[in-house]
Amino acid sequence: MAEDTNPEDSTAQTGPEGTAAPAPAPQAARPAAPRPPTAPAPNLAGKTTTAASAGGAAARAVTAGATKPAVASGRDPDDASPLLTRRAWMGLAWGAFSAASAAALAATGRFMFPNVLNEPPQQFVIGFPNEYGMGVDERWKERFGVWIVRTPDDMVTHASGFYALKVTCTHLGCTPNYLSAEAKFKCPCHGSGFRLTGINFEGPAPRPLERARIVLADDGQILVDKARKFQYELGQWMDPEAFLAI
Amino acid sequence: MAETKTVAPKEGLGTRVWNWLTETQVWTSIFRHNRPDSDRNRVLVMLSNVFLHLHPVRIRKSGVKLRYTWCMGGLSFFLFLVLTFTGLLLMFYYRPTLEYAYSDIVGLREHVPLGIMREMHRWGAHAMVITVWLHMFRVFMTGSYKPPREFNWSIGVIMLVLTLLLSFTGYLLPWDQLAIWAITVGSNMARATPFLGYEGPGAALLRLGDVPLIHAYDDARFALLGGSFVGEGALLRFYVLHCVGLPLAIAVLMAVHFWRVRKDGGISGPL
After folding, report:
1. Which tens digit of pLDDT belongs to each residue from A198-214?
2. A26, pLDDT greater than 70
3. Tally of helices (H runs) and strands (E runs) in chain A
4. Do A59 and A38 sit in the same domain of this protein?
5. How far apart are CA A51 and CA B230, in angstroms?
6. Do A172 and B229 touch (CB under 8 A)?
7. Taking CB atoms and an 8 Å cutoff, what residues of chain B touch A114?
8. Could you tell me the CATH number of the domain that includes residue B128?
9. What local confidence, expressed as pLDDT, does residue A28 receive?
10. Distance in angstroms (rounded) separating the CA atoms of residues A26 and A33
11. Which residue of B has its CA nearest to A227?
12. Using a CB-CB distance cutoff of 8 angstroms, which residues of chain A are in contact with residue B218?
């Protein structure tokens, strides 16, 4: 492209020279060109003025007119005009480059999201109901992040049975501790406190702990699904799957 | 350069060695100017050095006045160099895995000579956050953010954010309870990112039919943590960001920042 960068060459504004625009190699292909052989072809790329556009359009029109008879039976063997104008080729090249760059960028972004996670499952089976006594059971807290609470009288359904509380504080996501002597869950980060029902009563937590889906599996074991959460303030603890009546 | 060297009438051994040394090709390749004893040579000292050329050739008298600049920008840069050096040393011992991270941190104190290396890195980091804030405060109070320096102010704001992010990512690496829960709390803010956090405003709008496009496993917080909670993915990501990604970004911006100070007429002076 070095020979095309002559800033003096603004032939795009003139008609006759505009016809030379599509010629990629004027010296070789057009020995009879009125211009000196060393004269560079007009560089239309990057010119955004209306004059340049008009010149380009004129060039295309002239080119199209010149090749029109040859179009029907294929190209005239003597027709040295390129199939692709320089401008069109540059547009194509930049377009392809931009598309490839965008694709590479998207792929880089996607790379940051793995397909497989080495994390505990959201849904798990925790044994038979008769393996649990009344009160808070902490055996799955570490592994799955739930407290299994068995109560004789649930605050919402007034039935006896199980609910699964997620161990994530509703303030900023720390894990509260179960304080059996005080019968509450207490978050060590900012002091939020929750009753065994999950209802918040002290500290900055804005809403109760979330309950997870708890049902009986086909084999009679308790199945907990953390992917489905039930929020008290939305009235979701009334949902039949938020509480397992036994 | 073409100046002839004035030769003392009686040369001692030291002078002769010095003269020989300063005429070797290696010496003249590195120092392409004479001693900075004239204005021209002093300018050449700055211009012919890739590191110094970011700096202005001349600065105003007020630019070295401690009462005016507080030297907070310079101190921030100095602390960045300290942190780069000590951080590099720490990397020889620290392994960013759940199994080793905490014990390596303890080992850096107990098993490695000069057990204060990690403390230097830690306190240096705290100090850098302070000096960067004070630098910003000084620039604000002296009005140095005004045109033509408004672009450089913006660069500085980005670098302030990068400094805080460096501090944030470094905070997780000791992998103690404080670190894990601080990053849990901090990264939970990313859940509320508009559109890109799954609990943020507008995120619920991004859905195809019943399928949410933004959920807990593909939102901004997930990208930060490499998981749905602060675990091994988060430790590794924070480590890579802390040691490579963010320092690289801030180093490039520092080069622009210093260069821009020169281009905008040097350190601003009192009006």
Report:
1. 999 999 999 999 999 99
2. no
3. 5, 11
4. yes
5. 60
6. no
7. 226, 233
8. 1.20.810.10
9. 44
10. 7
11. B216
12. 113
